[in-house]
């Protein structure tokens, strides 16, 4: 089965030429069936030199092909093109400082940081003409800005990818595994780079170098990062985001998440629920929701790194196992991080802490899946 999330685009269109309509095509064995799934192309061929981009993570593609939206840092897209450069087109009308930041990688090389302070961002300038691949990752959004109830402020809105002197090609080969991480500010990389002021928020956060994204990379898996700062099992997140069990099925308010089931799910929640004595019931509900959306996945329930609600997480996993779901696993994290050296301010891991946590978590997942 070929299932990646791809969005078709191409060269700049003349005024009289309409963008092609988007279709969702699912290839199962040798039978091709055309489906309509909220504007998201699970697989779209590239006829007559017209290519696609592959969406990784959570996106609202209901406005495609002219508008796709991400509110989760760690969401990304990748594409291949033939030419001297590609141009990313954004709608920045809703953004306010601190502005969204991206990581851009060309041909598997070094990552370049980009602040989305202009409507067009060139990729690959200075590279030799020819065939190139690009991966663009949402580094950071400001969790304090509106990113649940429209009008959205903390959002990346992509209008298109253009190759002025060439063409888009079929995207890179999809990864075999998909890892979904459900968590809070730690999962989206808040304060990973350093401490700082609110007006620096997107500069000092980094989802790509946070433990969840790093774990996916270590496993060779496609990352789907769903992290909302301040959010918990019982508490709302910043930016108007509901508690995790209520928010999880949606990209943002009114937009259901329609996506490929994950092979691996990591739940890292409870760190913001310190005011309540027990989160077991809500945590069990989140496990059930994750199972409904990812029927074959191995689900790893991680004790929050600040070491809170360990008993609630453990009991929730035990109940899931007792009810017959044997692919839900409890992950003890005591001793993984040193609060003095591996965190920015005693809670959020710094870059070294994220790297340590990713190595430990990836090893737990590998060991478990080998059983």
Question: What does this 3D model show about the protein?
Answer:
The protein has 371 residues and is α+β, with helices and mostly antiparallel strands. The chain contains six helices and 21 strands. It has helices spanning 201-204, 211-218, 244-247, 280-293, 310-322, 351-370; strands spanning 5-8, 24-28, 31-35, 52-56, 60-63, 67-70, 76-83, 86-90, 101-106, 111-115, 120-123, 130-140, 156-162, 167-169, 177-183, 221-227, 250-252, 255-256, 264-268, 298-302, 328-331. The chain has two domains: 5-169, Jelly Rolls; 177-370, Rossmann fold, CATH 3.40.50.1110. Helix content is 17%, strand content 29%. Strands 1, 4, 7, 9, 10, 12 and 14 form a seven-stranded antiparallel β-sheet that branches. A five-stranded antiparallel β-sheet has the order 5-6-13-8-11, with no helix packed on it. It has a five-stranded parallel β-sheet with strand order 16-15-19-20-21, with helices on both faces. It is globular, with a radius of gyration of 20 Å.
